[in-house]
């Protein structure tokens, strides 16, 4: 069985088009994580707060970020997919975040093959309400977990997201190649 983090390339045209491996689903509280040792998606926990993921959430293959995890990606979707689904996606923004003292930024992307998102190419194309909901989720989703502090630090454009993806690819190569 293929390992979606190690065996799948970062994308067909990274950093412009990436693969996003879905772990958590839009509208749900279950926190799934890909376990490369199985390999498969396992239930890590149920969110302690009464919030749900604002869109499908997962990681970018062959990436490693400053928090020593695969690089996180939130893919804006109308309908949830399923844990383990691989989505070809275009990075359109970067949300800066501090999670318990660690830099834990998130790529915001859109499905490359969904015509409902053809008009979204950069940060200014995302409706402000959607950005507010994303920020609110990440500011509050760990509030009821003992000793956890999260701070969102704003959004940056598609160019910053692509630079961060290249950084995550470089870190992956340094650590695992």
Automatic annotation (TrEMBL):
<keyword id="KW-0479">Metal-binding</keyword>
<dbReference type="GO" id="GO:0000287">
    <property type="term" value="F:magnesium ion binding"/>
</dbReference>
<feature type="binding site">
    <location>
        <position position="31"/>
    </location>
    <ligand>
        <name>substrate</name>
    </ligand>
</feature>
<keyword id="KW-0460">Magnesium</keyword>
<dbReference type="InterPro" id="IPR008162">
    <property type="entry name" value="Pyrophosphatase"/>
</dbReference>
<protein>
    <recommendedName>
        <fullName>Inorganic pyrophosphatase</fullName>
        <ecNumber>3.6.1.1</ecNumber>
    </recommendedName>
</protein>
<feature type="binding site">
    <location>
        <position position="67"/>
    </location>
    <ligand>
        <name>Mg(2+) 1</name>
    </ligand>
</feature>
<dbReference type="Pfam" id="PF00719">
    <property type="entry name" value="Pyrophosphatase"/>
</dbReference>
<feature type="binding site">
    <location>
        <position position="72"/>
    </location>
    <ligand>
        <name>Mg(2+) 1</name>
    </ligand>
</feature>
<dbReference type="InterPro" id="IPR036649">
    <property type="entry name" value="Pyrophosphatase_sf"/>
</dbReference>
<feature type="binding site">
    <location>
        <position position="57"/>
    </location>
    <ligand>
        <name>substrate</name>
    </ligand>
</feature>
<comment type="function">
    <text>Catalyzes the hydrolysis of inorganic pyrophosphate (PPi) forming two phosphate ions.</text>
</comment>
<feature type="binding site">
    <location>
        <position position="72"/>
    </location>
    <ligand>
        <name>Mg(2+) 2</name>
    </ligand>
</feature>
<comment type="similarity">
    <text>Belongs to the PPase family.</text>
</comment>
<feature type="binding site">
    <location>
        <position position="45"/>
    </location>
    <ligand>
        <name>substrate</name>
    </ligand>
</feature>
<dbReference type="GO" id="GO:0004427">
    <property type="term" value="F:inorganic diphosphate phosphatase activity"/>
</dbReference>
<dbReference type="GO" id="GO:0005737">
    <property type="term" value="C:cytoplasm"/>
</dbReference>
<keyword id="KW-0378">Hydrolase</keyword>
<feature type="binding site">
    <location>
        <position position="141"/>
    </location>
    <ligand>
        <name>substrate</name>
    </ligand>
</feature>
<feature type="binding site">
    <location>
        <position position="104"/>
    </location>
    <ligand>
        <name>Mg(2+) 1</name>
    </ligand>
</feature>
<keyword id="KW-0963">Cytoplasm</keyword>
<comment type="subunit">
    <text>Homohexamer.</text>
</comment>
<dbReference type="GO" id="GO:0006796">
    <property type="term" value="P:phosphate-containing compound metabolic process"/>
</dbReference>
């Amino acid at each position: 069985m293929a390992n979606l983090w190690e065996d799948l390339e970062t994308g067909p045209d990274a950093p412009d088009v990436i693969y996003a491996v879905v772990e958590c689903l839009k509208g749900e509280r279950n926190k799934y994580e890909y376990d490369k040792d199985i390999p498969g998606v396992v239930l890590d926990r149920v969110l302690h707060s009464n919030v749900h993921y604002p869109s499908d959430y997962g990681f970018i293959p062959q990436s490693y970020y400053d928090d020593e995890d695969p690089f996180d990606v939130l893919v804006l979707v109308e309908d949830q997919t399923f844990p383990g689904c691989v989505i070809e996606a275009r990075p359109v923004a970067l949300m800066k975040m501090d999670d318990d003292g660690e830099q834990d930024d998130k790529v915001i992307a859109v499905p490359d093959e969904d015509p409902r998102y053809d008009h979204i190419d950069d940060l200014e194309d995302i409706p402000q309400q959607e950005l507010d909901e994303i920020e609110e989720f990440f500011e509050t989703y760990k509030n009821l977990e003992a000793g956890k502090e999260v701070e969102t630090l704003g959004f940056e454009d598609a160019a910053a997201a692509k630079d961060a993806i290249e950084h995550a690819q470089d870190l992956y190569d340094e650590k695992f190649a």
